[in-house]
Amino acid sequence: MRRPDQQTTTRPTPDAAPTTPPDAPPAKAAGPGTPGRADATAAARPAAPTVARPTGDPTTEAALAPYLRGQAAEFLRSLRLHHEHSAPADSGGHDAAAATRALRRSARRISGCLHTFRAALDPLWADQLRAELAWLSGILAREHAYAGRLTRLVEALHQLSGPALPAARGARAAGESTSDAQGRAALGVGAARAGALLERRLTLARTRSHSAALQALGSSRFHAVADALALLASDVPLAPGPAGRTAEALLEPAERAEQRLLAAVAALPPEDTEPYNEAQDAAWHQARLLLRLHRYAHEVVLGAADPALTGAGHALDLHRDAVEAAGAAAAAARTPRIAPATAYALGVLHADQRHEVEAARAVFREAWPYAAVLSAP
After folding, report:
1. What is this structure's pTM?
2. 168 CB burial (10 A radius; 0-12, 13-18, 19+)
3. What digits encode the pLDDT tens for the residues 6-18?
4. DSSP secondary structure letters along 77-115
5. The pLDDT value given to residue 35
6. Distances (CA, A) of 327 to 156, 206, 237, 258, 273
């Protein structure tokens, strides 16, 4: 997939190794004037990564069908492990959780490929299965999300309240104002109650999500999904006719996925925007979704994920976690009839997680390897 100045996936080419054109201009920041920190970072970034390229152009039979069959087989193996480790006599809850994560991982990859390469597959079958996999992945993700959110918030509370307790019990540090000391004391008092409130709320939500996941895994709807994936492990319904089986049936959709990702990153708010602007979160979540779809398309076309985007993807995951944690703290603060100290601690926790959101955005900008996109007006 070619793009003259920014490229995250490349078309597979025959045996010849890629070379740089002799007249290619050096990377530099766009626009006149003295380059700032962002321009210096952009100038240091490569315009395109070096990607291992298989020989020849992959076709649906050579690349997409084996990939989908492999992911379907992985889903069935994970399902078997989940049944084994979820038995009442089995005490390995960690193994059951690992099997659930593997189920979600396979379901996401199959669903992403059905979305990106829909034109190369039977469209009616692809749409139906993708909708069912989205339902299943969402059901299985909730319990893990609530557990991770609780751990994140409790650890953040400990970090925020730890330094405040000595000041609340003893003398204030030299130069500390009365209002600062009062704020530290209120945070120390309210942190324990805020932690208990969060644990009660998120543990209840996690328990309900666990029950919903067990109910879903025993439902006839899930068994229909498992049957469909069992068939997929042996036979992939491709689009009728020879047109859907050529290399272009894979390369063109993968290129479109890449271009959507680049456009979404270019549309992200600039670095100097106001903090705590929750209206911007949706654009970052969209970039994370498109990066995931691009990664799956890259796995199909080139056989592996793009290593240049690993750091950027991790930063977007941290961004999502911080946004959801901040939302949980804000929702807990709206609980009726809570003590003022508890509400204050939850407010400080919300602000801390919004700072983590801003930090994740900064990490993404540093990790994103194609500076031409981020420096676009």
Report:
1. 0.80
2. middle
3. 455 545 554 444 4
4. HHHHHHHHHTSTT---HHHHHHHHHHHHHHHHHHHHHHH
5. 42
6. 14, 16, 42, 31, 20
